[in-house]
Amino acid sequence: MTAKPVGKNEESQGKALIDVFLKHSISHFVYTSVDRGTNSDTDATNIPHFITEYDIEQHLFFCVAEKSNMAYTVLRPVGFYDNVTADFFCKVFTTSWAVKLPEDKKLQLIATSDNGEFAGQAFLKDQGDVYRNKSMSLAAAALSLEEFQGIFEKKTGEKLPMTYGFVAKMVMGLNKDIGIMYDWFREVGFGASVEECEAIHGGMKGFEEWIETESAWKNARY
């Protein structure tokens, strides 16, 4: 399993890493990509960094089919609870959600630690049919902003960090990738099955548990 660089070199470096693994006959490659809705296998979306992940996946599938017996597991997580941080980044995340998505639109989420649990199980159970040569979308919850905000305030006793709407709009205007992504959240959205994920890994954290155990507010009195 590898952590990938983010930026203009991500695709070239991701493909090069796959080539190196194939050259050295690595037995099992676990790759964390991103869920792209119900058609993740065939739909790259219009989001630049999602397209990058799709192209890296396609390189992996082609190389394995043509050149190698290397096993693979592609994990496609949705949004992360871990975007809730005690800094400005969180405020942009939550306010962009408020600005772009209707009140009743739910966003699928998961903890990065649970993504890691799936990755670990992929290695431990690589001879089974659950993970070997499979791609799977990962989600632990689907929450509206109101539900998300209510859980946060209940568990921390604080208001959910947010900023002015025009600030989030300005950030999305300056970073087109983010703006396009939130438009996609509104119009399409993630397509993972929480139920299927729970059947594979029943210990996934809900947002409440993540706040209590992993967030910057884990030591708060709630």
From TrEMBL:
User: Where does the NmrA-like domain lie?
Assistant: 8-199
Does this UniProt record's set of keywords contain Cell inner membrane? no
Pfam families with a match to the protein in the record: NmrA
Gene Ontology CC annotations of this record: nucleus
Keywords from the UniProt entry: NADP
Family statement drawn from the similarity comment of this UniProt entry:
Belongs to the NmrA-type oxidoreductase family.
> What's the name of the protein?
NmrA domain containing protein
The organism encoding this protein is Pyrenophora teres f. teres
